[in-house]
Design a protein that fits this description.
Distance between the termini: 58 Å
Number of strands: 13
Mean pLDDT: 88
Helix content: 25-40%
Strand content: 5-15%
Radius of gyration: 24 Å
Order of helices and strands: HEEEHEEHEHEHEHHEHEHHEHHHHEE
Structural class: alpha/beta
Low-confidence stretches: 23-59
Number of domains: 2
Length: 405
């Protein structure tokens, strides 16, 4: 199998990973499901990987993405190898599953990726791998690939590097010296739930511990030791609905990671059954659940909400029909609206329709004059119709008229 065929095979298998943001245009994800045709442009290039063959792929999985700093780039998301010795019940790469596998060696992959960047076909890399020969050996290969890109080929662009289950602390530190972002997929919120998804993984020792090391390294060592003079952010991903866990369980783990381990973001990948796995007959998780988890996660991370404030039902589920911030406001602010001209930032963020930027703008505008009407709110970027039932303007309820044009 030539290099481009392997790259197509491996990159297409990464579609289940949700880390990094897709670009959105006119309310829809730009590039979702679209794979830019690279091969036709590469076939005319020089190099040992690009000889024309009948089985050359028609595309690889490069897609527009938004990085943590807001930069838009073309990101290649791929595996170094889809060979895996683990038998996770939900995973398409699990040992024994019948599908086409492929592998790159670090030097080979690094040179192929670097060539893609030189031709402007990709600008950043999200690199993971199956586990073969143990987590330590698999992590060494990922680190070697990033090391070749950084120090042999001079690549200074974005790299997101996965940390394999069972990786050692020294490997985690080395990955943090090479990458802009590092991540470990916890998959489940606790040991009990992980047993239902991946019975041979150890939740604390193999998965949570590397996230603890990342936080310890950032806290104890100078940022100058990290890549480009700063330590990378860390993220994780959960399989939502795969192990019968509640939203409360997932968000309890998320809150701990945000507030105790300095996690930048938790991602939620809704469970979808994969043919040829033990969970192939389990029902998929509805998309709305994934959406509500993200909304609640942002309340914990960006809006100052505590876990106890989130509107869980008796079964630990978030409301389906309403976003959690609106549900909280209906329970707590309907009869006790917030005076927008006196509220501090913490309370402004409790009002639906006001986000972190909107709260800052309101605080700044109040230094000049009181906010007395809905028109002024709209000019400040507030979603006035959404906010009005929960606020006061100089002691008066906001009068909302429908916007016709």
């Amino acid at each position: 199998m030539d290099a481009l065929v392997r790259l197509k095979t491996l990159s297409e298998q990464m579609s289940f990973e949700t880390d990094e943001e897709r670009c959105f245009v006119a309310g829809r994800p730009f590039g979702l499901g679209r794979k830019p045709d690279l091969s036709s442009r590469l076939l005319a290039s020089e190099g040992p990987y690009l000889d024309r063959t009948d089985n050359c792929p028609d595309s690889v999985f490069v897609h527009p993405a938004v990085l943590p700093n807001g930069q838009h780039i073309k990101l290649l998301k791929t595996l170094l190898s889809s060979v895996c010795e683990r038998d996770c019940y939900y995973c398409p790469f699990r040992a024994g599953r019948d599908f086409r596998r492929a592998t790159f060696q670090p030097e080979e992959f690094a040179r192929l990726f670097f060539m893609l960047t030189r031709k402007g076909l990709t600008e950043g890399l999200f690199l993971s791998s199956g586990v073969a020969g143990g987590g330590v050996r698999s992590q060494d290969k990922l680190i070697d690939t990033a090391d070749i890109l950084r120090h042999k080929l001079g690549f200074h662009g974005y790299i997101h590097l996965k940390v394999m289950p069972g990786a050692e602390r020294a490997q985690v530190e080395r990955a943090m010296q090479l990458a802009d972002r590092v991540s470990v997929n916890l998959e489940a919120p606790n040991t009990e739930r992980l047993l239902r998804l991946a019975p041979h993984k150890q939740f604390i020792e193999e998965l949570l511990q590397p996230l603890k090391w990342m936080d310890e390294i950032r806290r104890s060592q100078p940022a100058s030791r990290g890549w480009n003079g700063r330590w990378p952010s860390s993220v994780t991903q959960f399989v939502a609905g795969g192990a019968g866990e509640s939203d409360l369980e997932l968000l309890t783990a998320t809150s701990y990671l945000y507030h105790r381990l300095g996690l930048k973001r938790a991602y939620y990948s809704r469970f979808n059954p994969i043919p040829g796995t033990p969970l192939e007959n389990q029902a998929p998780t509805p998309p709305i659940r994934e959406h509500r988890l993200y909304q609640a996660s942002f309340l914990l991370r960006d809006y100052g909400f505590d876990l106890e404030e989130l509107p869980f039902g008796t079964d630990g589920s978030l409301p389906v029909q309403s976003d959690p911030k609106l549900a909280w406001a209906q329970q707590n602010l309907k009869d006790q609206p917030i005076e927008i001209n006196r509220a501090d930032r913490h309370m402004l963020l409790r009002i639906p329709g006001i986000g972190p930027k909107g709260a800052d703008i309101i605080l700044q505008a109040r230094r000049q004059a009181s906010i007395r009407d809905v028109t002024s709110l709209r000019k400040l970027g507030v979603l006035a119709e959404k906010a009005a039932p929960f606020l006061l303007l100089d002691g008066r309820r906001a009068a909302i008229q429908p916007v016709l044009f």
